[in-house]
Hints:
heterodimer, A: mainly alpha, MetI-like fold, 12 helices, globular, B: alpha/beta, Rossmann fold, 8-stranded mixed β-sheet, 23% strand
Amino acid sequence: MLSYIARRIVQAIPALLGVSVVSFILLHIVPGNPVRLMLGQHYTAARAAALSNQLGLNKPLVVQYLIWLVHMCEGNLGFSYSYNLPVTTAILHALPNTLALVLIASLLAQFIAIILGTIQAYFENSPFDHIVTILNYFFYSMPSFWLAILMVIFFSIDLHWFPSGGVINPQDPNPGFFDWLHHLVLPAVTLTLITLAGWSRYMRSSVRDNLLLDYIRTARAKGLRESQVLFRHVLRASLIPQITLFGLSFPSLFAGALFLEQIFNYPGMGILYWNAISNLDYPIILGVTMFLGTLTIVGNLIADILYSIIDPRISLGSGDSM
Amino acid sequence: MAEPLLAIRDLKTYFISREAEVRAVDGIDIDVAQGQVVCIVGESGCGKSMTSLSIVRLVPRPHGKIVAGEVIFNGTDLLKLSESQMADIRGNEISMIFQEPMTALNPVMQIGRQISEVLVRHRGMTKKQALEKAVEMLRFVGVPRANEIVYEYPHQLSGGLRQRVMIAMAMVCNPKLLIADEPTTALDVTIQAQVLELMKKMREETGTSIILITHDLGVVADMADHVVVMYAGQVVESVDADTIFENPMHPYTRALMDSIPSIDEEKDVLYSIPGTVPSAAHFPKGCRFAERCPLAVESCFEEMPELRELAPGHLVRCDRV
């Protein structure tokens, strides 16, 4: 197991290098000049040249890339142009907010998806199944930013149940945990609804396939109660694809949070990224991209490890069974 | 004869969908006495598996449905029981073994747990007691290293061992009736013989009645006390095992016997019954075997023959013999 993880981490290095090269090139293909943006109305040719020189932007691209790479290997992602902070500090400030949002939303979505999908599959073609299917397609096809806007209009502006954005109430001197939670509800529910829709479809079809298998008939022939058949036998095998889905979708959840954070003015990685792109803040863009790349690889690795725990037919590494 | 352990009366199991009504089991009667081995013989699709699933009420949902009949087990009609009363009987008093031991076992659950959960369910044992009993049972059915295998998974075992595990699982509560649906079809010939031996041993030591479903007449000769021949959802002949080989009466049974290759004869081409089984969605109104039958006359196509007792204990559904 440990040697497997080590091997996967070694394999991740070329993948991450590839990500960095591609994003570096793309960044410099995109029209626009960060120096110009930073100087704004104070722009003069002399100042621009001085700033370019200071930021290292006048060096050849290859040299710029290598400098960045060497710094990254030392754990230094550079200094943000617009925030006046080291990139790592900016990311560490934003990360907990996004992580909370994404973790809460994905766990909630997975939990509800498992329950809904199982009930749907068990009572296939019942009115409940049809209604949930329709709702699923409704939320699945709805763009996240649109749903977010509707949520704000309805729950925040009309009903005044939840704040429309931010993470804390600025007028409250001692905000505390519940205030934070209160701010988290709308973005988390929006992200949950959108994620849930797809996941419960997967769960439904997975349970449906498993219900038809021979060993479920065996479980019934043993006289087990239906609840035992369902929870002990059907559910375990049906969860396997959900785990892969969970690992794979973690990065895309971060990406999904990008729009939501913008709408809910939620100070996480999404807003950081969004602002960095509008300001052509190269170090932040590269730093966040590398972070998401790493997250994708880690998500996959975790899914594979969980996979081997839940399914005895899969063994990681070589030859530790059979 | 004393009251049989199991009496199936006029059982009808249909598959009903919007397009068609498929009469998989169409009014069969079968008796199984205490300790008896009854073989149900017939080709694929004749309704033998559906008969066995109907007994324990596990006909595939949602289309399969038992539409009529009685299944009297130990004096009670199983078809009248509630779902939970039926579940109390399954795996406890009536258990089943299936054809494909790889897919019939849960691939992601330890062998020991799969056996012990039956005991926990029906005998109220603790998990620990049940696991000990599972090891004992695995030893009894001849599984080597039983105390290690309880912690292994089905994919780590050979086909023969898996079928032994299935048998251990089915027999662990000492059922009065064991239904084995083609238990040896998926196994190598040498393993087949071992599994049949094991089933005989189980019968001798526990007095369990067995319904053995097979299309292999060799298995019938080896195991059966009584034989029921099914064709197109109906019983066409029912008699004790010796008579079926010595004096088969129904033209279909005779044709089945003729299709066994004999070691004494020189044959270039094996005999096979001409024609095919009529589709269960569109049975003819007369005898269902008439189209393939060498004895058929015009009246056979018009009227369905009744099951008649031609000799004591020998039932045949044919008017021409």
